[in-house]
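To illustrate the input format used throughout this study, we show a single complete record. The first block contains the structure-token representation of the backbone; no residue identities are included at this stage. The design step must infer an amino acid for every position from geometry alone.
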């Protein structure tokens, strides 16, 4: 018989493995979400644990991992292209006329998935009922691009064996990657508090794995390296993310500060990104420039590099609050627009708090490449 381990959303089983830990889903969870899982079985397992979160909690993590609605649409379009080719090959081999294409659109499928309440989908099968209890009529399910006489995508069941609400919903989601399926389910607000469960307890209890194999890990390809013009900028961004988005802070990495920051200044940051491009380092890199004259010039220069798709170069945003900012220079004190001229990261802190000294931007030399003075 063996023991299965699966990743579930409510009553839906999205991906499973038998007698083996299978894919590592730790990127969806925090260590604090390792907990005792409430199971339907009366049998008590020696290892009661698993990981459990909610759709709402894993949603920002899914987005960072690239599982967006846009990706879901691309996955569906790819499935149509593959299935169209496979059906044509089958009819050529069988000597029958080419099939007509009448696939459901991605938007059609999205409407159906939005109707799913993952916790409430019935697992029941009525043997005396002549028609199966499906979430979608059989003639519509046959218009999915993963319905195929050649069992497209390695599905272990044909549509005629899909009898319950749950299994028919799993069939509809089965052509999407599991994490993309969770993203689609999040479109129904009633699913946001639905549990997302990676239940490894039975596998460990029955001797197919040890609990230590289920560790929270972050692969380099899932994380983002943030590189700034200076060490203080990196420290402020790290602290801001920890305060404002603690649920995803573990997806971000920073240059090691213990030995001193190696990329001080706009020129060094540009050279660092240039070196990464030359070596084609396969990381997710976010380079952040200050909203000042030197930062704007370097930002434009770095954007002209042949950046890898996983690289992003950005500049701190222009703000209306910075359009009339206290400045001082050769002509004395005045108010001026410091966007793209003198706005370092410190200008984005709360400068109106009591007890802070008056802050001014001091003008320096002219940056000829952008025609503005650096402050």
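Output of the design step:
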């Amino acid at each position: 018989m063996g023991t299965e381990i699966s990743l579930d959303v409510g009553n839906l089983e999205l991906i499973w493995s038998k007698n083996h830990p299978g894919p590592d889903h730790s990127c969806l969870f925090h260590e604090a979400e390792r907990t005792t899982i409430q199971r339907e079985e009366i049998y008590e397992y020696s290892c009661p644990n698993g990981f459990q979160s909610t759709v709402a909690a894993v949603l920002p993590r899914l987005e960072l991992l690239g599982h967006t609605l846009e990706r879901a649409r691309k996955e569906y379009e790819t499935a149509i292209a593959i299935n169209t080719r496979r059906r044509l090959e089958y009819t050529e081999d069988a000597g029958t006329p080419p099939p007509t294409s009448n696939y459901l659109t991605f938007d059609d499928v999205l409407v159906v998935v939005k109707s799913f309440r993952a916790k409430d989908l019935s697992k029941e099968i009525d043997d005396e009922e002549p028609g199966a209890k499906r979430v979608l009529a059989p003639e519509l399910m046959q218009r999915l691009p993963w319905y195929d006489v050649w069992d497209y995508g390695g599905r272990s069941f044909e549509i005629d064996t899909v009898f319950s609400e749950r299994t028919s919903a799993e069939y509809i989601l089965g052509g999407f990657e599991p994490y993309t399926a969770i993203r689609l389910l999040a479109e129904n607000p009633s699913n946001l508090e639905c549990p997302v469960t990676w239940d490894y307890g039975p596998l460990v209890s029955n001797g197919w794995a040890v609990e230590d194999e289920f560790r929270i890990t972050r692969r380099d390809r899932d994380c983002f390296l943030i590189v700034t013009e200076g060490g203080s900028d990196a420290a402020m961004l790290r602290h801001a993310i920890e305060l404002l988005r603690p649920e995803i802070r573990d997806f971000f990495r920073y240059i090691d500060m213990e030995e001193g920051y190696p990329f001080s200044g706009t020129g060094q940051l540009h050279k660092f990104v240039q070196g990464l491009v030359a070596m084609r380092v396969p990381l997710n890199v976010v380079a952040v420039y200050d909203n000042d004259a030197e930062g704007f010039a370097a930002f434009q220069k770095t954007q002209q590099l042949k950046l890898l798709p996983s690289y992003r170069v950005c500049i701190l945003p222009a703000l209306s609050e910075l359009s009339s900012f206290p400045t001082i220079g050769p002509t004395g004190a005045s108010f001026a627009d410091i966007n793209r001229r003198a706005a370092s990261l410190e200008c984005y802190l709360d400068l109106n708090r009591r007890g802070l000294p008056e802050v001014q931007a001091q003008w320096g030399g002219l940056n000829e490449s952008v025609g503005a003075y650096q402050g």
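Structural context for interpreting the output: The first helix runs from residue 55 to 64. The CA atoms of residues 319 and 335 lie 15 Å apart.
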